[in-house]
Amino acid sequence: MNGTTTMNALIDDIVTNLGDIAGLDTLWPRGAVHRGGPHYRLRGTVGPVSIGMDECRVFGTLIQKTRPARCFIIGNAFGLSSVFISKMMEQCGGEAVVTLDNQSEGDGERNAAIAQSLTERLDCRLLSNRKGESPRDIASVAGEDPYDLILIDGLHRHPQVTHDFIGVREIATDDAVFCWHDYWMLGIPQSVAEAQRCGFHCVKINCSCEIVLGTRSETVYDRIEALYENTEPPRKRLRPTAFLKACHAMATGTLNTWRARTRHAR
Ligand SMILES: C[S@@+](CC[C@H](N)C(=O)[O-])C[C@H]1O[C@@H](n2cnc3c(N)ncnc32)[C@H](O)[C@@H]1O
Fold it and tell me: Mean per-residue pLDDT for 212-222?
């Protein structure tokens, strides 16, 4: 099996098992901000929403090509991204994946139970799911050994995402790859800008919800930047409010109403 076939088979397995455990609803079948998707949420719930399946493949490619040993994830929800990452790392010589979630979104306790059930069903031997608050509990949950892959996907607000970044810097190796999911949302651009001020080299991948990858190592940056086609530097949006309103309209199925209203306003 080639890399993409392996990843697609794993995605199918995860989606089937989550469907069995709890039931899933599909969201953004063709992608949110860019072409991609679909995303999932638990049946009948508003959120949390998983990363897109195209975004799983972004992480899969990163793991296959850079073979990280230890991954730390802020924001686990019902376990879709962490199970995908831990099974990919298992195939690529990884050692550990640790998640931190404060169970604040939706029915957090139920989400955590579903995440744990999925972890056990797929026999994720690298994965350890922990309850706690970022950034307060990062150090205690992380333990002694540093991490070379970090995913920030917790609360999407400013300055929380910047605090998350400052917190995980303390547990990262010098050449770790940091991943920010949802660059289009509030708080993430500010966190990425802080990383750039601290000397991180960052690239934005235009997948469904926009992932930014960043690292302090120029060598690692050159390697990861070359892995993807649809990329650009992370830039401040010129009209962030209008952009967010358009995205909200897209998410709630009211894009045509929004378009008509903005045409009148012009
Ligand atoms: C967007 S969801 C994560 C989705 C997940 N990465 C996936 O794709 O499967 C965000 C999660 O972050 C958690 N969260 C929010 N604020 C947090 C905080 N301060 N510390 C830890 N977790 C937090 C929420 O409980 C929620 O489960």
Answer: 98
Q: Are residues 215 and 249 in the same domain?
A: no
Question: What is the C-alpha separation between 86 and 94, in angstroms, rounded?
Answer: 8
pLDDT level of residue 232 (50, 70, 90 thresholds): very high
Cα gap 41→24, rounded to integer Å: 6
Q: Report how far ligand 1's centroid is from the alpha carbon of 76 (Å).
A: 5
Q: What is the pTM of this model?
A: 0.93
Alpha carbon dihedral 129, 47, 186, 15, in 10-degree steps, equals 60
pLDDT in tens, 165-215: 999 999 999 999 999 999 999 999 999 999 999 999 999 999 999 999 999
Q: Is the CB of 80 under 6 A from ligand 1?
A: yes
CATH of the domain at 225: 3.40.50.150
In this structure, what DSSP letter does residue 245 have?
Answer: H
Ligand 1 proximity of 51 Cβ (cutoff 6 Å): yes
| 19 plus 124 within the same structural domain | yes
Q: Is the CB of 179 under 6 A from ligand 1?
A: no
Mean pLDDT to the nearest integer, 150-172: 98
Query: What string of DSSP letters covers 74-96?
Result: E--TTSHHHHHHHHHHHHTT--E
Say yes or no: 171 and 128 in one domain.
yes
First to last CA, the chain: 53
Based on the structure, what is the number of domains in the chain? 2
pLDDT at 3: 83
How far apart (Å, rounded) are the C-alpha atoms in residues 232 and 218?
A: 17
Q: Hey, which of 54, 76, 183, 191 would you mutate to test ligand 1's pocket, going by the most ligand atoms within 8 Å of its Cβ?
A: 76
Domain interval for residue 266: 239-266
Residues 160 and 257 in one domain: no
